[in-house]
C-alpha cells in the first residue's frame, strides 16, 4: 500500500524506456526487508515498470491511483456478478494483480516527481480501505448467488472483511498515534533480507489473495486456499492488535499519561 499524491503532469524526458526505468530503480526508497515475498519481489518490480510507463505519458500519481481502482473494482464487480469458472478466475486474478501493481506505481511516480501531498495519501488510503472490505463481500455475494458453498461457509468472507478492515484501521491509527507522540516508524531496508520472515508473510500478503482466485474454477480447492488466507489474516490481526496496544501503553507511560 503506497502513498499517492496530487500534482500536475510532467512531460517525460526524451529517453529510452529502459533509461526511465533505471531512474525509477535508483530514485525509489528501499522495500522493507521483512515485507512479504510477493509484495517485495514481484509487486514492487511490476509497479516500477508501470510507474515508468505512466511517467513517460505524463500521468499524475492520482491518475495512476484511478487506474489501480478501475482494475481492482472491475474484478470485484465480476466476483459478485458472474458464476465461478476458470475464465472468471483468470480475469479476476489478472485485474487484481494489475490493480495492486498500479497501487505501487502511484507512490513511485509521486516520489520521483516530488509531487507528494496529504490529499494524495488520503485518496490512496480511501481506495485501499474500500477494496479491503468490498472484495470479500463481493466474493460472498457471488458464492451465495450461484450456490457454490453451503451458506454457513459464507461466514468466511464475512470474517475476512472484518479482520482486514480492523487490521488496516489499526495499522493507520497506530501510526498516527505514534507520530503524535513524536515516534516515526521506519522499517529496515538495508542489509540481507530475512527470507524466513518474508516467506512466513506470504499467507497474509495481498498478492497471495490476488493469485488464489486463479483456482476459482475448482471451488473446493479455491475455498481451502482462501480459508487458509482468512485464518492467517485473523491471527496476524489479533497479534498485531496486542503488539500495538502494548507499544502505545509504553509510549503513554514514558510520557506520564494513560
UniProtKB/TrEMBL annotation:
GO terms for biological process: phospholipid biosynthetic process. It comes from the Bacteria. Signal peptide: none annotated. One of its GO terms (molecular function) is phosphotransferase activity, for other substituted phosphate groups. The chain crosses the membrane at residues 63-80, 152-174, 195-217, 223-245. Pfam families: CDP-OH_P_transf. Belongs to the CDP-alcohol phosphatidyltransferase class-I family. This is CDP-alcohol phosphatidyltransferase. It comes from Cellulomonas flavigena (strain ATCC 482 / DSM 20109 / BCRC 11376 / JCM 18109 / NBRC 3775 / NCIMB 8073 / NRS 134).
Amino acid at each position: 500500500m503506497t502513498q499517492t499524491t496530487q500534482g500536475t503532469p510532467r512531460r517525460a524526458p526524451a529517453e529510452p524506456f529502459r533509461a526511465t526505468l533505471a531512474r525509477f530503480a535508483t530514485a525509489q526508497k528501499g522495500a522493507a526487508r521483512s515485507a512479504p515475498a510477493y509484495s517485495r519481489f514481484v509487486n514492487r518490480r511490476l509497479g516500477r515498470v508501470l510507474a515508468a510507463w505512466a511517467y513517460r505519458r505524463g500521468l499524475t500519481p492520482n491518475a495512476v491511483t484511478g487506474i489501480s481502482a478501475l482494475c481492482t473494482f472491475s474484478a470485484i464487480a465480476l466476483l459478485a456478478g458472474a458464476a465461478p469458472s476458470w475464465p472468471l478466475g483468470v480475469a479476476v486474478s489478472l485485474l487484481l494483480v494489475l490493480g495492486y501493481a498500479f497501487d505501487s506505481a502511484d507512490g513511485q511516480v509521486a516520489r520521483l516527481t516530488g509531487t507528494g501531498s496529504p490529499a494524495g495519501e488520503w485518496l490512496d488510503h480511501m481506495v485501499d480501505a474500500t477494496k479491503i472490505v468490498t472484495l470479500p463481500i463481493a466474493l460472498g455475494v457471488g458464492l451465495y448467488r450461484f450456490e457454490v458453498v453451503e451458506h454457513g461457509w459464507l461466514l468466511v468472507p464475512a470474517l475476512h472483511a472484518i479482520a482486514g478492515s480492523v487490521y488496516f484501521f489499526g495499522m493507520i491509527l497506530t501510526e498516527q498515534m505514534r507520530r503524535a507522540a513524536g515516534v516515526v516508524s521506519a522499517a529496515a531496508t538495508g542489509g540481507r533480507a530475512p527470507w524466513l520472515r518474508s516467506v512466513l508473510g506470504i499467507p497474509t500478503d495481498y498478492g497471495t489473495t490476488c493469485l488464489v482466485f486463479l483456482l476459482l474454477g475448482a471451488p473446493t480447492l479455491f475455498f481451502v486456499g482462501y480459508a487458509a488466507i482468512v485464518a492467517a489474516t485473523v491471527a496476524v490481526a489479533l497479534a498485531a492488535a496486542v503488539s500495538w496496544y502494548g507499544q502505545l501503553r509504553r509510549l503513554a507511560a514514558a510520557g506520564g499519561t494513560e
